[in-house]
Write a structure and sequence with these properties.
This protein is an all-alpha fold. The protein has one domain. It is about 60% helix and about 0% strand. It has helices at about 15-20, 30-40, 45-60, 75-90. The relative contact order is 0.12.
Length: about 90
């Protein structure tokens, strides 16, 4: 995964961009502001819940061991496959 920062002055993590897009916010800054309203004191909560659900969905769709065992390891190649799947499915 590329080394990205997040925030109004930095580059956005591609996974966060997919989250914002799925929520109907093409502007990630607007998504962050909305989540700050939704989750006071935890503005990344919405993203964390969404990305966790996406990892579970990916594991189920691909038959990854994580679909049955939350502690199954994720290897670098799993992250590459997940990112490709996420880009395709969002």
């Amino acid at each position: 995964m590329p080394e990205d920062s997040h925030g109004p002055s930095g580059k956005w993590n591609p996974r966060y961009l997919a989250y914002a897009k799925c929520q109907g916010f093409p502007d990630p800054d607007a998504m962050l502001a909305k989540d700050e309203e939704r989750y006071p004191g935890g503005k990344m909560c919405g993203f964390i819940l969404w990305i966790d659900a996406k990892w579970s969905e990916w594991a189920t769709v691909t038959g990854h061991p994580r679909s049955k065992d939350r502690n199954a390891p994720l290897w670098p190649e799993d992250h590459v496959a997940f990112d490709a799947w996420l880009a395709e499915s969002t």
